[in-house]
Amino acid sequence: AQKVTQAQTEISVVEKEDVTLDCVYETRDTTYYLFWYKQPPSGELVFLIRRNSFDEQNEISGRYSWNFQKSTSSFNFTITASQVVDSAVYFCALRPNTNAGKSTFGDGTTLTVKP
Amino acid sequence: GAVVSQHPSRVICKSGTSVKIECRSLDFQATTMFWYRQFPKKSLMLMATSNEGSKATYEQGVEKDKFLINHASLTLSTLTVTSAHPEDSSFYICSARDPSVFGQGTRLTVV
C-alpha cells in the first residue's frame, strides 16, 4: 500500500520569506516516482517536478528547490523568496514504476503568501 | 510540451440528467488516461483508469454504471456522469502520461 503524508494543512508566510512544504511517503516498491503539483485557485493542476527514486540529487529550478531523502522517505519542496503568486494548494504524489502504477496524492498544503 | 485538453471547464445540470466530460491529448497518443475526483479542500481521488480499446479499470467504491468511461481513440477519453445527483457535484480532472499532464478540470454542479 502507498501513502503520502503532507502534515502541513495550511501555511501562511509574508512575501519574500522562504517556505518549505513537507512530504513524507510510504511504499513497498523499490522503484517509484515522486511528483509535486501546484493547484492555484483556478483549479488546474500544474506539474512542477518528477523525481525517480534512483536519483537522490537535489534539484533547483529558479526559486524552487526539492530535497529528496530516501533514507527518511521524504521529498520536501522549498520556495525561496516567496511571492503572492505562489499562493496555491501544493500536492505531493507517489507513483510506482510499473505499467499499472497508480498515483497516490497527499492531502495538499495550502500556502498563502501575504504581501 | 504535452497538453491535455478537458471540456467543459464548468457545467451545471439538473438532477437526473447525464453529463459528458471530454479529455483529449492534443499532441501525443495516450493509451491510458486517468480520471480523478476532487472534493472541496480535499485531495485527488483516483476514480478509474481509462484504457484505449478496452474496459476501464475502476477503483474500489466507484460505481461503474454511474461513471461511464469510454476511451474510443488514442487521443480521447470521456467520462459520463449518468443520472446526476447533487452529491455528484465535484471537480473532475483527467490526466495522461504518468500523470505528469493534467487537463484543466471540470467543475460539475448538479442542481
Low-confidence segments of chain A, ≥5 residues, pLDDT <50?
A: none
Strand content of chain B: over 45%
Give the helix/strand class of chain A.
Answer: mainly beta
Low-confidence stretches of chain B: none
Q: How many distinct helices of chain A?
A: 0
H-E string of chain A: EEEEEEEEEEEE
Question: Could you please describe the fold and organization of this structure?
Answer:
The complex is a heterodimer of chains A (115) and B (111). By secondary structure, chain A is mainly β. Chain A is 0% helix and 53% strand. Chain A contains no helices and twelve strands. The model of chain A has no long low-confidence stretch (mean pLDDT 92). Chain B has strands at 4-7, 10-13, 19-25, 32-38, 44-51, 57-58, 67-73, 76-81, 90-96, 101-102, 106-110. The model of chain B has no long low-confidence stretch (mean pLDDT 92). Chain B is mainly beta and 111 residues long. Chain B is built from no helices and eleven strands. In chain B, the strands form two sheets. In chain B, strands 2, 4, 5, 6, 9, 10 and 11 form a seven-stranded mixed β-sheet that branches. Chain B is globular, with a radius of gyration of 13 Å. Classes of the chains: A mainly beta (115), B mainly beta (111). The A-B interface holds A 33, 35, 37, 43-45, 47, 50, 91, 93, 95, 100, 102-103, 105-108, 110 and B 34, 41-44, 46, 49, 91, 93, 95, 98-105, 107.
